[in-house]
Design a protein that fits this description.
single chain; 473 residues; alpha/beta; five-stranded parallel β-sheet; five-stranded mixed β-barrel; 20 strands
Amino acid sequence: MAEQHILTPISLSERLEYVARVKEWNEQYTAEQGKRRGCFVLTFGCQQNEADSEKIAGMAEQMGYEIKATPEEADLIMVNTCAIREHAEKKALSIIGQYKHIRARNPNLIIGVCGCMTARDHRRNELKMKYPYVTFTLGTASLHHFPKVLWEVIRQKRRLITAESEEDFTKTVAEGAPVRRESGYRAWVSVMYGCNNFCSYCIVPYCRGRERSRRREDIVREVRELVEAGYKEITLLGQNVNSYGKGTDCDFADLVAELDTIEGDWLLSFMTSHPKDASRKLIDVMAEGKHIARRFHLPMQSGNDRVLKAMNRHYDMAKYLDTVAYMRERMPDIVITSDIIVGFPGETEEEFGDTLKALEAVRFDMLYSFIYSPRKGTPAAEMEQVPDVTKGNRFDRLLATQNAIAAEKNLPMQGTTVRVLCDGESKGNPDVYSGRTEGGKIVFFGGTPDMVGQFVSVRIDRTEAFALWGKVE
């Protein structure tokens, strides 16, 4: 593994010094105004961004802010952005644009923008030139500088729209930041940061830097503390978790095996895995585990070898299918999910047909499908693009194929009893509760408030492609 710079006690003490300065400033405000300043955190994108936002909120609380539910209540707004697709960036910019009116009513409002979008030079420059009410930016690898940057903004009363340092982007793994978790029973735990794969369509390596793994002992300690605190499902995160610990004496399978020894009534899951690194050793650990969820998210992206090569994925369909076959040999009940990109540059109708055939061959339980979106700065953005109307037509056909497969996969679950981690009232009906199975499938059932955050047994009496319905036994 490449040389890393983990925050030393001196670095931590420096961060805490800035925490103390901001906290004192906030306490003076509270003494004068009789109320605390508020912080609102808005998150776009993936689970890693959700985990990052929990750290942002934790540091904000540590500095004396009260976390608020709406931006109108806040004195500090933090927008954690995503850059995986153009739509995500435009949506973030649109909402940031709306904050102009809040700033007009509250001239002392501080607005910070962080996340993947801020790593892109043209977006950072856009924030600087077109959004003068944005106060500062932070990159994905420099969140530990949040207290320092915020104090500089407060003290100097000026904007700080800056790029990340090379050390933060390629070497630093920061420990010690407080975490304000959104749930008391589901938790995200990052095990590594960055990506070295450089898939031709993907902006992530340019936004999150090179692969950097956390220390094994720090991860084990965090997971153990979460289990002891009563958390029921813990998900390990990384751009490619299978790359964890490369170059050390502990690989990802070793880490998962060690975490599985932690006693308690809990589930361990992880995402995301790259097919080229999904080892039989890891599959064997899962098959023999006590707490490891029988589900595997394995992004296929395309069912055609030429397209996979153009994507720079470093595997072919033979390898992918072999990995899936071994999973099902060792765990016949495993739930397998995947990602598919429709309309990758140069994709022909015949090549798209190979993807449909692959869906029929693998029979995924769930699929996350995306229409290809060019990302400035990636090789695929310079390739010959597939017309939008063609991409839309293929996307519809892909969904139709997968929906039929998912419905068929779920049908045999009628009449069975499944263990569900209850999340509470469903969004559309307060009388109906929802939760997820070990395999991540959503289940709707009649529940009560005391079930939230607990495992319940649900007998399934109706199934559809995307959900199961049943009654608590």
